[in-house]
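dumping this here so i dont lose it
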């Protein structure tokens, strides 16, 4: 099988290749094509992958190209992991938002909207190229904002595009560990949008073990989300929130922590990765990855008084394992249950059929099928509906080029509390990003 990775010069690509090297089953990926618009980054990551492959005699062959059609031709699976504007763009998104006193995280709030406005047109072009050049390929979307971008691409590719994220995987793994359960033996009742979901149940051998966790204050304080949100708040929700909900539930504290930090997360990663790409090697990649994981959501943990990340949480979240499990299920009909970003159909009654949601899915050779879940609790309905409404305005603005619609996208988001602020944000982002200049 051939796997094409768009954004193939990206820092996390060696995680995917490492997982491929460990897969020795029949019907495995034998060819990997990396595509990127930056030839230097392609060369750097290609060199790291070559180091990874040295001790593996049957390692998948790797090729690199800056020609998108060449990369797509003959692909069975396409991983889309592009970053429009690079980390410099992310740093600008964060800086502009914080100057207005609102959150600029790359998937949440004003930063997520700005990133979406830049990324959706590129994602739609990729989807159209896939439909033309590799119509039988399955697209697995990593590109953030993952739910929004997956929904955009689904308008061209239908159910042949599936979004993935490692946040629910990490949350489930941590909760299962506290409960003394094997994550592979548990059913996770997780529901919401990408970076906006709740773990409502953990069924092991037919029994929901989450109430046992909610009743144990010490256990709730023993893992990352428990320390971020606090036992009392988690118990009041009756569910464990995805870590990204800290930006909503503790928004003022998060904004203050980000404004007081010496650098935003995007600026930190920009500088860190510049050092890596300046002298790339497998050893420097490992060192950079370890530092990256140790500092993940550091400002939020500081705002919550949660301390440093636990040693067992420093391993990357596992999005590459989710991607490979998804590929196996589709290519080999090895049925699996995975939390994925897919079209809603009738899963959540508060959203329409085409809205992309993040829910457990049964995956087989015909793709991912969302399972029936209990309705959203009342506290989640308004938040999910409001964020989805803002996402829909991003999609409409990207299609129409309308300034008014783009302003509406910012203004409707729960973390942007003013139409005046929305207008100033759009003008500032248009100055920072030439591709948004037509919206000024």
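and the seq i came up w/
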């Amino acid at each position: 099988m051939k796997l094409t990775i768009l954004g193939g010069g990206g820092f996390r690509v060696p995680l995917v290749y490492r997982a491929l090297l460990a897969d020795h089953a029949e019907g495995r990926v034998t060819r990997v094509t990396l595509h990127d618009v930056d030839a230097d980054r392609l060369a750097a990551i290609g060199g790291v992958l070559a180091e990874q492959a040295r001790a593996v005699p049957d390692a998948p062959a790797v090729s690199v190209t800056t020609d998108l059609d060449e990369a797509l031709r003959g692909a069975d699976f396409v991983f889309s992991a592009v970053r429009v504007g690079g980390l410099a763009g992310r740093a600008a998104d964060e800086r502009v938002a914080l100057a207005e006193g609102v959150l600029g995280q790359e998937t949440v709030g004003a930063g997520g909207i700005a990133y979406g406005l830049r990324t959706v047109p590129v994602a739609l072009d990729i989807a159209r190229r896939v439909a033309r050049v590799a119509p039988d390929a399955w697209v697995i979307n990593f590109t953030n904002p993952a739910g929004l971008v997956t929904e955009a691409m689904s308008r061209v590719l239908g159910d042949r595009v599936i979004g993935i994220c490692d946040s629910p995987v990490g949350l489930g793994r941590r909760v299962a560990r506290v409960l003394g359960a094997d994550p592979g033996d548990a059913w996770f009742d997780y529901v919401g949008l990408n970076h906006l979901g709740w773990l409502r149940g953990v069924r092991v051998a037919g029994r929901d073990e989450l109430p046992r966790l909610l009743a144990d204050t010490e256990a709730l304080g023993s893992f990352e989300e428990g320390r971020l949100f606090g036992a009392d708040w988690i118990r009041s929700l009756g569910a464990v929130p995805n870590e990204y909900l800290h930006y909503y539930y503790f928004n003022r504290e998060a904004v203050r922590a980000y404004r007081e930090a010496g650098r935003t997360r995007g600026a930190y990663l920009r500088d860190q990765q510049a050092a890596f790409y300046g002298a790339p090697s497998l050893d420097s990649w490992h060192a950079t990855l370890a530092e990256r994981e140790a500092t993940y959501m550091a400002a939020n943990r500081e705002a919550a008084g949660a301390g440093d990340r636990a040693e067992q949480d420093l391993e990357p979240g596992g999005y590459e394992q989710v991607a490979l499990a998804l590929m196996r299920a589709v290519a080999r009909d090895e049925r699996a249950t995975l939390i994925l970003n897919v079209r809603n159909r009738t899963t959540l009654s508060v959203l329409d059929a085409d809205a992309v949601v993040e829910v457990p899915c049964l995956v087989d050779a015909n793709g991912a099928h969302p399972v029936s879940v209990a309705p959203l609790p009342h506290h989640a309905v308004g938040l999910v509906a409001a964020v989805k409404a803002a996402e829909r305005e991003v999609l409409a603005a990207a299609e129409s080029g309308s300034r008014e619609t783009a302003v509406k996208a910012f203004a409707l988001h729960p973390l942007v509390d003013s139409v005046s602020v929305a207008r100033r944000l759009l003008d500032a982002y248009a100055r920072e990003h030439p591709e948004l200049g037509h919206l000024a």
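Residues 24 and 58 are 9 Å apart (CA to CA).
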